[in-house]
Design brief:
Shape: globular
Order of helices and strands: HHHHHHHHHHH
Strand content: under 5%
Helix content: over 70%
Distance between the termini: 35 Å
Number of helices: 11
Length: 315
Amino acid sequence: MTATAYLSQVLQVAVALALAPILVGWINQCRAWLQGRRAPPLMLPYRTLRKLFVKDAVIATNASPVFRLAPYVVFGAMCCAAAIVPSLATDLPFARAADAIALVGLFALARVFIALAAMDIGTAFGSMGARREMFVGFLAEPALLMVLFTASLISGSTSLPAIVDALAHRDFGIYPSLAFAGVAFTMVSLAENARIPVDNPATHLELTMIHEAMVLEYSARHLALIEWSAALKLFNYSCIGLALFLPFGIADGSDWRALVGAAPLLIAKLAAGGAALALIETLSAKLRIFRAPEFLGTAFLLAVLGMLVNLLLGS
């Protein structure tokens, strides 16, 4: 690996850290426009993070070290995922660790720690949110793995850079297996990022919230890290979707000219994806929590169907 590749790796993580809050702000703006409301400022998530970082943290007296450690572990896991997912380039030092199974494991690690922290204080809301989060997670992770395995069957590897290289340099063609996998991935992404119809990130109602119920006891820098981690998770899922289904424009890690050209193209694709997500949320209704298994079960079946189409038809 050359020094340029290591600089590209650092640049990719820095871009993820910078763009993740803006992506959340862009989605909130699009939702407001579609609903006929006055849109909040695009940089509002940055202002919220800055305000939280300068405040003093309030921690419950019965909080264990797990409660204090969880925000840092979750944030670190999302940063590692941002380094693994090929958002700007493929030939990077983390390419050897860019395995699809390891990536799902990072998401699972973050989920486990935030659930443990939510139960640590012993509040009713925290325990309820942790149970719901694990309930959604154990249904979403198999579907996500099936989506990644469908792409790996086409490329012959579970390495994300290898998958991107194989899909980006193939002749143009219509792959029914990727169509099924794309629908399944969209459904999983909505569930994993606490978006409508599975969850509503803009509510604190007891009967509907999942993610918000787990972070009610956090404040100041701890809450800032969790909010930043949630934005990074949405950014990572968006980049996974772009890498699997729109892999064009992703550069080689040692080519600075292609890397410079990949950044604005990534921003354009994220803007289009954020607008599409806002449209889906505006047109969808919040599901009851007991309907989540049907929603994610459908995603799993679609992902498995994509694998079967690839195995049987080779397309």
